[in-house]
Amino acid sequence: MRSVSVVGIGETKMGRFPEQSIRDLILTAGGKAIADSGLDRKDIQAVYVGNFNAQLLCKQGHIGPLVSEVLGLGHIPTIRTEGACASGSLAFRMGLIAVMSGIYDVVLVGGVEKMTHQPTEVVTDGIASAMDYNMEAKEGFTFPANFAMIANRYFHEHRNVKKEMGLCAVNAHHNASLNPDAQMPKEVTLEKVLSAPLIADPLSLFDCSLVTDGAAFVVLATTDIAKKLGKHRIVEVVGSGHAGDTLTLFTKKSITSFASAKNAAKQAYEQSGLKPSDIDLAEVHDCFTITQIINIEDLGFAEPGRGADAVAEGITSIDGKKPINTSGGLKAKGHPIGATGISQIYEVVTQLRGDAGTRQIKKADIGLTHNLGGTAATCLVHIFKGR
Amino acid sequence: MENPVIFTYSILYSSTDEFVDKIPYVSCILEQEDGFRFASLLEGFVEGMDIKIGQEVKYIGEDEQGKVRYSLE
Q: Which residue of A has its CA nearest to B38?
């Protein structure tokens, strides 16, 4: 297998953009990624693009050729990947495998989602297609409900961590306030978070991630090509893990720790020869604040049941020992579903290059991304190393 | 068989069009004696009611769509 590096990155600002179409979002993010790489568009041999819900929310399928048309990539092969909220990371891993194996030398991978033009009920119903529609959604389950049930079970098995969940939201908003691409770049207080209206008890408004329009793309190439380009610090992909679990929540053995995440993390750590203590920063899938606490444990950054302690002690803050979601995360940077996994990679590469401006962390040599799909039915973990 | 117990639950204050009229309502995972779990919408919730994990629920029959229904009371 060949060594592969991220040679170009690009993303749109995340937010609510009624005047922008899927085409516009792809053009901005994809165009930036190709320009950032220093490669010519003719060098790109294939496209892998994650999208979850455009067929329902925008009546638009066949996103692969849309990307090649918008970016002028000619007759190259294109593939759309779908794995709910992990669609973007899935595209990344498919592109990675293709370059590692020698099929291609340079590929464009990305994700795009346009959601905010639809009413909340339609978006909630659309997202519910990432759970079992007949057995869960038709029983009145929503994603906030699923993760609220996870939170209540977590409170039962460990302790009530509602306050620490609130701190996750406070941290996310603080970090987003330093990120020019973030959808909600404003500070919130713990009092405001804890007094917000309930969505699905115990989750309130600030425990939930955002509904977002946005796109993010990266160019992957062999590390040999990356060395010749010499434009940026080389960011090598040193670990890639992908694992799954049952689709439904009620069939999972554990709902307070996710088997998909633990398995994907184990693969990525083993491939890279790295351990949790080696990771300088991580972008984790905080679809809800309780998820961030569980992710911290599943990735080995804290013992089971102690993820909330790590948050309360400031370990996961931007100036802590293990900064989590320096971008603002799904909670405050935004959650453009099919693009989220790539948006996470965009942040890690930006930090490893030292280009994160006011949110730049001091030591950024090894970064990790963790992207969940559905009710933790899919998980991808990637580890990146700056050379 | 004994009545199932609540494995976990949430009280919903926001939902899809289909269920918005039922707000606030209780989504839960019920667990049978033999360990089998399933998703359910619990009937009989009124605001302020105390719900606990491990609490037994009562079988109340099938609804108009033929779905088995349980209640908090």
A: A250
